[in-house]
Specification:
The chain has 89 residues and is mainly alpha-helical. Helix content is 55%, strand content 0%.
């Protein structure tokens, strides 16, 4: 069985689903290393994003995952690490 991968396209889709299409303009271009605050996503939006990731991928993320991973690149890596760890159990 292959481990699902979480990619930038998945993160963008989930952010847009949670915040709405009007806020999607901030997700254009090279955003991998931009802080979520700079992209217009505050803590409440990130909590919703985390809930959506958990439901869709069947994992449980610690509350600190967003505090510790402030950019899309870091969050994607953290989610993929979680997916790999969950699949190994």
């Amino acid at each position: 069985m292959t481990t699902p991968q979480f990619a930038l396209a998945d993160l963008k889709r989930i952010l847009l689903e949670g915040a709405g299409a009007d806020d999607g303009a901030a997700l254009d271009g090279d955003i991998l290393d931009r802080d979520f605050d700079d992209l217009g996503y505050e803590s409440l939006a990130l909590l919703e994003t985390g809930s959506r990731i958990e439901r869709e991928y069947g994992i449980a993320l610690d509350d600190e995952v967003f505090a510790d991973n402030r950019t899309p690149r870091a969050l994607i890596a953290a989610v993929n690490l979680h997916l790999t760890t969950s699949a190994a159990v």
